[in-house]
Specification:
This protein is of the alpha+beta class. The strands form 8 sheets. The chain has an 8-stranded mixed β-sheet with strand order 5-6-4-14-15-16-13-17, with helices on both faces. The protein has a 6-stranded mixed β-sheet with strand order 8-2-1-12-19-18. The structure holds flavin-adenine dinucleotide. Flavin-adenine dinucleotide binds next to helix 1, strand 13, strand 17 and helix 9.
């Protein structure tokens, strides 16, 4: 090997950053830190560089990933390898041979074309081609049964070992010290901050660690109570006998319907699999001596998938196999990796759990983490892979074991809109769950919560039938939507995260963090954002003042860990404030619609009139024999109340509302209806329509800012500067002219024949009768404003076809909010 274990005498006792793990990812983090001028970096590897998962990666570098930003990170790798060779004289073996993505059924064809549209958005070269053309590019393909394909000439293949060794050399050239055969025994922390690591060779004091230990990451992190929910899974490829005359530059062929990819590898074909029903490995711990692991072959498991591949590429029927390779790779519950600083652990960074795209992603992920450490913030919106999306319960071994058996296959399975996980379900249930089951709810999972997405009518099974078109639940959800607009509906919104903030400095702290004014009377609900010092939106929430010294912050289930972490970081050491996650203490029942007032009045002595109970207030009311906190607020754009019910009273209160609701035609409604209703009101959703990257002004939310409140708020100065200079991108509401096509997100937005942005979330609006989306549009030649928006002619690209659209900065439904204030 080019890099031998370093002798012990120069082993450091101090470093600024210790990177743990010498695979594709760890070396990339070290290299990018040195590139940023941080050369006091030590990388520790328990065995040899590349000896974990990296050495046996198939070397595919595909740029198109699930989202725009992840695709941009993957794209970076292809650029990085060219530079590296020049810099180090070592080749990463990277060749831009291109790739072909096949579709052999109509659903996949739609998916491939939608993917091609996103590729265009990312600036990738992409051609939508016929099966015949695909067979010209990859002559071993039998094109019969192929409907079409996307061809991405910029994709490539590389040598993971060579590339990692080249990156390691570049890191060393930048000043990093690399030590092999040096196992990190533990990360040392003091008062919530990293202070060093203990290793087999001694301790190193440091300010930052980066856990890049691949499938070992969960166990190492758990020692410090850091959650990295990944689990090893067996992952297979086979390599054929040599094929005479094979062209080494054939593109990579991906046939997801056959769960297969095929590439040329040193005169042979390598055939890899992302099969359903994968095999979790080493559930009870990875063997201590694991190094350059090869797991046992399993032809029985693989044969059905190999047979399918051989039908598509018939040469595989006639040729023998030289190698059956089975190696472990780590997968996560949502098939996305984990990046960033662990919540509650200053200086503990993570880059792990790469779900079989770790070689392709290592360049971008390494750069992102290095930038994150040096700049103290993520370089772009990385919420899709942010470590803070995970919750502590997710590192449960049994949960992960079952889930990762599904995760691996999902890479190539259909990525249907609204697709739900099938494994590890039923974990977090509202106390009303069984009642909603009895109502024929179809559940989806978010943050482990089982949430009613839609309700099937009597006699219909509450089961999804997926497609890219109108799915089976479309008409039922439409009725739920209409019931909310015209009458009254009940939503179980218990998965909301609830954070209690209390102490005599609660107002002062929240006021500094929030854009809106928190110095309000108890009983007021305030809609606000939390911004960073660049004005980017870190959180989007409602805050209710319960008492002088007590507030409850309500956020979405997925953001609770992140929002708690953000808030905790902003609390000055001398402030008298504590925060606690009280999510489990209350059930949330949304009673929404024009008849909600009548309904609630029929079971309560409280006065729900506009005068007594105005919009944006909360108070304790009786419901039957119980007391609840009723909050007059809405995410659907109608008159309505959210009832915050102590958990043990939930079943009783629900029964009371539902019984009384019979007289008002109360309907149960789910999250798909909620989404359709909120889109028509242009209510943003953090993580889609806003992020730390887009500013409050760009998100169109400057109305929440109390610019002149005493003490200001984080981000105020940056936002005022932006206000003066003008902004160049802005969130707009997009309504398609044609009622037929459906939008999801990441669709390109065209203005006068040029791509100017992309949709960030979308749903069919049943009142508007068309697909409605939110999306950012960009103007480079001047500040963006209403006039500019109006002057353009817009189209949205759906599966490579363009459809006319109308864009506006205001909601298509009730823009003056008359209904919610009725
Ligand atoms: C069969 C197969 C095919 C694949 N094909 C592709 C592909 O085509 N394209 C692609 O992008 N990806 C592919 N992958 C995935 C890719 O190999 C991984 O995602 C990637 O290598 C992960 O890199 P890493 O640096 O995170 O992990 P690793 O390479 O596993 O590195 C982690 C390192 O940490 C070390 N370590 C662990 N604990 C400690 C400790 N306590 N102290 C010090 N060191 C420690 C380990 O020894 C190990 O070397 C494939 C994987 C498999 C199994």
């Amino acid at each position: 090997m080019a890099d031998q274990p370093s002798p012990a005498p120069d082993f450091p006792t101090q470093a600024r950053v210790v990177v743990i793990g010498g695979g594709a990812v760890g070396t990339s983090v070290a290299y990018h830190l040195t590139k940023r001028g941080w050369n006091d970096v030590v990388l520790l590897e328990r065995k040899q560089l590349t000896s974990g998962t990296t050495w046996h990666a198939a070397g595919l570098v595909g740029q198109l990933r699930a989202t725009y930003n992840l695709s941009m990170l993957a794209k970076y790798a292809t650029e990085m390898y060219a530079d590296l060779e020049q810099m180090t004289g070592m080749s990463a073996g990277f060749r831009r041979v291109g790739s072909i993505l096949l579709a052999t059924n109509e659903g996949r064809w739609e998916e491939v074309k939608r993917g091609a549209s996103m590729a265009r958005l990312c600036g990738f070269e992409v051609d939508v081609i016929s099966g015949k053309r695909a067979a010209e590019l990859f002559p071993y393909l039998d094109p019969s049964g192929v409907i079409g394909a996307a061809y991405l000439p910029g994709d490539g293949v590389g040598s993971p070992t060579d590339a990692t060794m080249a990156v390691a050399r570049a890191a060393r050239m930048g000043g990093a010290k690399i030590f092999e055969y040096t196992k990190v025994l533990g990360v040392n922390e003091k008062d919530g901050s990293v202070v060093g690591v203990s290793t087999e060779r001694g301790d190193i004091a440091c300010d930052y660690v980066v856990n890049c230990t691949g499938m070992w990451a969960r166990e190492l992190a758990a020692q410090n109570d850091v959650t990295i929910p990944n689990h090893a899974t067996e992952h297979f490829y086979v390599i054929t006998e040599p094929i005479e005359g094979i062209d080494p530059n054939l593109p990579v062929l991906r046939s997801p319907d056959d769960t297969t990819y095929i590439r040329v590898d040193a005169g042979k074909l390598m055939v890899g699999f992302f099969e359903p029903g994968a095999k979790p490995w080493a559930t009870h711990g990875i063997p201590e001596d694991a190094e350059f692991l090869k797991l046992a072959a399993d032809w029985e498991h693989l044969t059905p998938f190999l047979d399918r591949a051989a039908k598509r590429v018939p040469i595989l029927q006639d040729i023998g196999y030289q190698l059956h390779f089975n190696g472990p790779e780590s997968f996560t519950p949502d098939v996305r990796y984990a990046l960033g600083e662990a919540p509650g652990h200053r200086g503990y960074f993570v880059a792990a759990g790469f779900n079989s795209v770790g070689f392709a992603s290592s360049g971008g992920a390494g750069k992102a983490v290095a930038d994150w450490i040096v700049d103290g913030r993520a370089p772009m919106d990385l919420w899709d892979v942010d470590i803070r999306r995970f919750m502590p319960w997710q590192r449960n071994r049994r949960y992960l074991h079952d889930r990762v058996s599904e995760s691996l296959g999902l890479l190539y399975d259909m990525h249907w809109p609204f697709r739900q996980f099938e494994t590890s379900r039923g974990l977090r249930r509202s106390p009303l769950h069984d009642r909603l089951v009895a109502r024929n709810a179809a559940f989806g999972e978010v943050a482990g919560w089982e949430r009613a997405n839609w309700y099937a009518p009597e006699g219909v099974e509450p089961r999804y039938e997926y497609s890219y078109g109108r799915q089976n639940w479309f008409p039922y959800s439409a009725e739920e939507h209409r019931a909310t607009r015209e009458n009254v509906a009940i939503f179980d919104q218990t998965s909301f995260g609830k954070i209690l903030v209390q102490g005599r400095d609660a107002e002062r702290v929240l006021n500094r963090v929030s854009t809106a004014d928190m110095a309000v009377e108890p009983g007021r609900i305030v809609y606000t954002q939390w911004c960073n010092d660049r004005g980017g939106v870190e959180a989007d929430l409602t805050v209710t003042r319960l008492a002088e010294d007590r507030y409850v912050v309500v956020t979405t289930g997925t953001q609770t860990v992140r929002d708690m972490d953000w808030l905790q970081r902003q609390i000055p050491a001398d402030a008298h404030v504590t925060i606690a996650d009280v999510t489990s203490g209350e059930v949330v029942l949304g009673v929404m619609g024009p008849r909600s007032r009548e309904l609630l009045s029929s079971i309560s002595d409280a006065d729900f009139s506009n005068e007594a109970f105005p919009f944006g207030t909360a108070r304790q009311v009786d419901i039957g024999m119980a007391f609840v906190r009723a909050a007059r607020i809405t995410y659907v754009g109608e008159l309505g109340w959210e009832l915050y019910v102590p958990t043990e009273f939930a079943a009783y209160v629900y029964d009371e509302v539902v019984k009384a609701g019979e007289a008002f035609g109360l309907r149960h409604a789910g999250y798909h209806a909620l989404n359709s209703l909120r889109m028509e009101k242009a209510y943003r959703h953090w993580g889609h329509d806003m992020s730390d990257e887009e500013s409050l002004l760009e998100a169109g939310l400057s109305f929440t800012a109390a610019w002149d409140k005493p003490g200001g708020f984080i981000g105020r100065e940056a936002l005022l500067k932006q206000k003066e200079a003008g902004i160049h991108q802005r969130l707009a509401v997009v309504v398609l002219d044609d009622p037929e096509p459906l939008l999801y997100h990441n669709e390109p937005i065209w203005r006068d024949g040029k791509i100017v942005g992309r949709t960030t979330s979308a749903m069919f609006g049943h009142t508007v009768g068309r697909a409605v989306a939110l999306g950012y549009v960009r103007r480079d030649d001047g500040p963006i404003n209403g006039e500019w928006l109006k002057a353009g002619k817009y189209e949205v690209e759906v599966a490579t076809e363009r459809f006319g659209a109308t864009l506006s900065f205001s909601a298509p439904y009730d823009p003056k909010n008359t209904r919610i204030r009725a």
